[in-house]
Design brief:
By secondary structure, the protein is mainly alpha-helical. It is 52% helix and 9% strand. It has a three-stranded antiparallel sheet with strand order 3-8-7, with no helix packed on it. A hairpin with a 6-residue loop joins strand 1 and strand 2.
Length: 648
């Protein structure tokens, strides 16, 4: 039903067939926000639409247990595909005119011949299907269950219908649903159901189109699909719809076409994390994964022409190649960062002021090598210059294969251009770091100058063999190395209590740890790690947010926080025990002596902090000898006693 009016015209005719390539044009000027047309719900086609085939399928389900079981196992899209197949095989179908207007050929990759598929060699689509031999579902093949149900229902068709019900027909119906169905809510609290809406799905896609649609009216046949323009269109201009921000890979897989110079093209680069570390040291590998999460980085990143080298990718690559001691150090620091998404400025600061330049440059070299390999593989079929020159020779749709070759060029050329830009951007970034733009204090010079900090290392208490305690420290964000000095968040009396907390955990027996909830805490941590890993893998495959998986991760994070709070509450009581505080004092004073800082300002302030915490715990008498060697009740040790103590 037209409001402003539109006309379908033949724009071009393919030489190899009688199919006409048609477009919609406006017969008058259309203003912004004005309704162009609407489609009544009586012509919507969904799995449960009224009609004889809905009744026929219900009867078959009641009479045949196999049909019922198979049908109930189908997805909503497969159920709609089956309904479309039944209407397609019925010469008197109510939807016959609509079905006759659909493309006769399957437009998607599953119909491509070998000659055309070669044009996609070494692209992500090619790799994901292993050469189009073992993963045909990505190319649009219907599920085995859909095919089985279709042939179980086939005997109920008339003679002509049975002849039309072939595997090719099932695949065609499946592709029509995959590429044309809208998700429409038919109940206020219900889920969107795949629905075919005649006319709307015949509009061509354009990234520049500004359109909107909505369902208006009450329940039943009074409802309608209203299509509006959010940008004015002049008389005689083509009317487009907009599928959303989709790159050529998604358009080619799901809809069977591509766009030249598509601004939404992307190339996904996947980072390897820790090499063999996952098998050799699972604890360290999980720590590295958790650091990625805390820094709001991912294992996979989408490169685009607008942002060919995101800073998050460099940060993630740097984390992937960091030595284990550095990972532990930065994991502790990340635990104290403000919650929320990592901003570009904070990542820049982290890379330029906290990470040693040599690690950043190593990460850049790794990325450059990965980008070069990917670009070389894509250029095996043709170079960027060759693809660009071919675009001018494919101006006519003289044959079906030629049109497919054109789509392949659009797709692979977009990928090559992105990788070329990424390569240049990485080289520019590396040059900036080599020229001092990212200079930081080297790790082995960290005790020199004003930025130096005293390190107190618990490595002697928690050995590498005690992996259960290391896992607990990871789950609680407790570091093995503690810093005291300028610019550190953990200092003063609070820093001493934090150190005591870590010592309490490291000295506690396994049975005691289990009693205060270590098992539940570790279980929560491992559940969160598994959920995050699965979500990253799924998002890399589907390239789309997965709300259910993300919700599951949020629940896991809440469980972990609850377990963490309960465990820490019980652990803090043990941390104020005289034996623990004395151990903390011994470690601090020992570190000061090794650092040659026995008489300085830092030494005096730390002694006062240790005394303050011990007196708060009512155990200063037991701890005093560790803080002041040779301490005598009522005063400081004499210089002679101190010298004797030091000599001893």
């Amino acid at each position: 039903t037209t409001t402003m009016g539109m006309r379908m015209e033949a724009e071009a005719e393919a030489e190899s067939s009688s199919d006409v390539i048609s477009v919609f044009t406006c017969v008058g000027d259309v203003k912004e926000g004005e309704e162009v047309f609407h489609v009544p719900s009586t012509v919507f086609l969904r799995a449960e639409s009224q009609g004889k085939w809905r009744t026929r399928v219900q009867d078959l389900k009641e009479k045949h247990e196999e049909v019922r079981a198979k049908y109930e196992g189908l997805s909503e899209r497969d159920r709609l595909s089956l309904r479309l197949l039944l209407e397609f095989c019925d010469s008197g179908s109510h939807w016959g005119p609509y079905i006759a207007a659909l493309p006769k050929e399957d437009p998607c990759l599953s119909s491509w011949d070998a000659e055309s598929l070669v044009e996609l060699k070494d692209t992500p689509i090619w790799k994901s299907t292993q050469g189009f031999e073992t993963n045909m579902d990505i190319l649009g093949e219907p599920s085995a269950d859909l095919v089985q149900v279709a042939f179980l229902v086939k005997p109920s068709l008339c003679d002509g219908g049975r002849q039309r019900c072939t595997r090719e027909a099932v695949r065609w119906c499946h592709q029509m649903v995959m590429s044309r169905a809208f998700g429409i809510k038919f109940e206020e609290d219900g889920e969107p159901l795949p629905t075919l809406v005649p006319v709307v799905d015949l509009l061509d896609h354009s990234n520049d189109a500004k359109v909107s649609w909505r369902i208006v009216g009450g329940e039943g046949g009074d409802r309608k699909f209203v299509f509006k323009l959010d940008k004015p269109v002049k008389k005689g201009m083509q009317l487009f719809t907009n599928y959303g921000a989709k790159g050529n890979e998604e358009l080619l897989r799901g809809y069977g076409f591509t766009l030249a110079n598509n601004p939404h093209d992307f190339y996904v680069i996947e980072l390897g994390i820790g090499g063999s570390e996952m098998h050799d040291d699972p604890t360290a590998w999980n720590l590295r994964l958790d650091l990625l999460h805390r820094m709001e980085c991912k294992k996979s990143h989408a490169l685009t022409m607008k942002n060919p080298f995101p800073l998050e990718l460099l940060a993630a690559a740097t984390i992937c190649i960091l030595p284990q001691p550095e990972v532990y150090h930065f994991h502790r620091d990340a635990a104290g960062r403000a919650a929320g998404k990592a901003e570009v400025e904070s990542l820049q600061k982290w890379l330029r002021t906290e990470v040693d330049n040599k690690y950043v440059l190593t990460a850049l070299e790794m990325l450059q090598s990965q980008i070069n390999r990917a670009l070389e593989q894509l250029c095996r079929v043709s170079t960027i210059e060759e693809d660009e020159s071919k675009l001018y020779s494919y101006t006519s749709y003289a044959s079906e294969n030629r049109f497919r070759h054109l789509m392949a060029i659009h797709y692979r050329l977009g990928l090559k251009r992105i990788l070329r830009e990424a390569k240049a951007k990485i080289a520019e970034t590396a040059s900036g770091f080599r020229n001092g733009g990212g200079t930081v204090v080297p790790a082995d010079e960290g005790h020199e100058g004003e930025s130096g900090d005293l390190e107190v290392d618990l490595g002697g208490i928690v050995g590498e063999a005690d992996k259960a305690k290391v896992k607990l420290m990871v789950a609680l964000n407790l570091p093995l190395v503690h810093y005291f000095g300028k610019g550190r968040r953990r200092r003063g009396a609070a820093g001493i209590k934090y150190l005591s907390l870590c010592i309490a955990l490291s000295m506690m027996k396994a049975s005691k740890l289990e009693k205060i909830g270590s098992g539940k805490l570790l279980e929560s941590l491992e559940s969160l790690m598994r959920s995050r890993s699965r979500l990253q893998d799924k998002m890399h495959h589907y390239q789309t947010p997965l709300p259910e998986a993300e919700s599951r991760i949020r629940n896991c994070e809440k469980d972990l926080e609850a377990s963490r709070a309960s465990f820490l509450g019980k652990l803090r009581r043990s941390a104020m025990h005289p034996k623990i505080l004395k151990k903390a004092s011994v470690l601090v004073m020992k570190s000061l002596r090794l650092w040659n800082e026995e008489e300085g300002e830092l030494c005096s302030s730390l002694q006062e902090d240790l005394k303050s915490v011990a007196m708060e715990a009512n155990c200063w008498d037991q701890v005093s000898d560790a803080v002041y060697p040779g301490y005598a009740q009522g005063g400081e040790p004499s210089s002679a006693k101190r010298a004797k103590t030091e000599q001893a």
